[in-house]
Amino acid sequence: MAVHDDHRKRMKQKFRENGLDALHDHEALELLLFYAIPRVDVNPVAHRLMERFGSLHRVLEAPVEELAQVEGIGENSALLLQLCSQLARRCEIDRSEHSLRQKPLTSTALIGAFMAPRFRGLRDEAVLLACVDNRGIVLDCQEIARGTVNETGAPVRKIVELAIRFNASGAILAHNHPNGLALPSREDIATTRRIQAGLEAVGVRLIDHIIVADDDFVSLRDSGIVN
Question: Among 40, 44, 124, 173, whose Cα sits 20 to 30 Å from the Cα of 73?
Answer without folding.
Answer: 124
